[in-house]
Amino acid sequence: MSTAFAKTPGWLDWHPDPARPRFALPPGSVDAHCHVFGPGDEFPYAPERKYTPCDAGKAQLFALRDHLGVSRNVIVQATCHGADNSAMVDAVRAAGGRARGIATVRPDVTDAELRELDAAGVRGVRFNFLKRLVDTSPQDELATIARRIAPLGWHVVVYFEESDLPGLEGFLGALPVPLVVDHMGRPDVTQPVGGPGFGRFLRFVDRHDVWVKVSCPERLSVAGPPALDGERHAYTDVVPFARRVVEEFGDRVLWGTDWPHPNLTDHVPDDGLLVDHVPHVAVTAEQQHALLVANPMRLYWPGEDA
Ligand code: 0GY
Q: Which atom number of ligand 1 is nearest to the Cα of residue 33?
């Protein structure tokens, strides 16, 4: 563990002893949303960060990957590293072709830097609209970044909350690259699946080149129960939302653990039990294969066999 940085008070570390999943992930499954944090001694956290996490380096990520039966990872730059992508790139390189990366870049990133990230395995950038995580970026700067990455065939991963969508959808829908939305656009799961909030999100996905991560039930759930202590029917209030997305957009959905689960305040889920959540969301073998293997392979490893 790093001695250089003191964790944010109340920080919850990842689950130390995840269960062995009962659900056997199909061969070639991809965890399409996870992060690495530091370690801070080697990869210092960014001065502008909004939280200081526990260290969660590539060795721990790869151990979890193997424990869960995952084949590949998509490692998403975490805001605690700002636009310094070195920890993420180091992990992607160390994975030897079994990881791709999503970076954070500033509008003044050079073409040479973008090419270097691409060669390392980066396939997109992340736009984060959560005020508790980042200072807001002007939309013209984000549009510039999107134009710069388009020739590389990259996409933009977007993180926003349901209430942000009305103010963002015009901007996002006009970007010249595919979009991948984190955590189903963070719906309010106390509202009906067929209600106006989630309905707007579904229409947005339908009308644009948008992929959706049916991830983070632990972050969205209000009613629980948590994926802890052998609970294999966790976060039941999130299930209808995720199922709806899988049913409507089965060829554009992705799944991820969100390990090491930044900024949770109630509990950190058992990642093995999160795997056991998947068959509640993707019910048929066909849906599961699309979600876990075919879709992420098409987006991140096109032309490669799983
Ligand atoms: C997530 C969620 C969060 C944090 C980050 O980059 C980050 O700091 O993504 C969050 O706090 O909701 O997807 O990992």
A: 13
The DSSP bridge pattern shows strands 122-128 and 155-159 to be: parallel
Predicted confidence pLDDT, tens digits, the chain (306 residues): 445 799 999 999 999 999 999 999 999 999 999 999 999 999 999 999 999 999 999 999 999 999 999 999 999 999 999 999 999 999 999 999 999 999 999 999 999 999 999 999 999 999 999 999 999 889 999 999 999 999 999 999 999 999 999 999 999 999 999 999 999 999 999 999 999 999 999 999 999 999 999 999 999 999 999 999 999 999 999 999 999 999 999 999 999 999 999 999 999 999 999 999 999 999 999 999 999 999 999 999 999 999
Give phi and psi for 109, each to the nearest 5: -60, 140
pTM of the predicted structure, to 2 decimals? 0.97
Instruction: Output the CA 181–ligand 1 centroid distance in Å.
Output: 13
Q: Kindly give the number of the ligand 1 atom that is closest to the alpha carbon of 50.
A: 8
| Residues flanking ligand 1, CB < 6 Å | 35, 78-80, 133, 182, 258, 262-263
Q: How many Å apart are CA 131 and CA 112, to the nearest integer?
A: 30
**HSE (side-chain half, CA atoms, 13 Å) at 70:** 32
Q: Which two tokens stand for residue 103?
A: 């970076």
Nearest CA owner, ligand 1 atom 5: 78
Question: From ligand 1's centre to the CA of 79, what distance in Å?
Answer: 7
Instruction: For the beta carbon of residue 203, count every other beta carbon within 10 angstroms.
Output: 12
Residues 2, 11: Cα–Cα separation, whole Å: 14
Query: Do you find a cis peptide bond into 196, omega within 30 degrees of 0?
Result: no
What separation in Å is there between the alpha carbon of 262 and the centre of ligand 1? Answer: 6
> Which class in CATH covers the domain with range 30-300?
alpha beta
Query: Does residue 258 have an active-site annotation?
Result: yes
3-class state of residue 34 by DSSP? strand
Protein residue closest via CA to atom 9 of ligand 1: 78
